[in-house]
Amino acid sequence: xxxxxxxxxxxxxxxxxxxxxxxxxxxxxxxxxxxxxxxxxxxxxxxxxxxxxxxxxxxxxxxxxxxxxxxxxxxxxxxxxxxxxxxx
Length: 88
Description:
Layout: E1 19-20, E2 37-38, E3 59-61, E4 66-69, E5 72-78, E6 81-86
Antiparallel strand pairs: 1-2, 3-4, 4-5, 5-6
């Protein structure tokens, strides 16, 4: 598992139907930091999870070495190697 160090803090903010245990706190991720996101409904393999609307904007972390954008996570491991994960 890769270790990420952030030059600037990251802050998560709650929204309608989303609860975050580290809400509105600047996290520097110098040490292992867990953040729990809760959506107020069961998400087990037999659950029927429904969202009214999901929106996001592109989040670029550490000069583009980690990019979170809509349904894609891109991780640049080296200057010439990038992994892209698409969330379906």
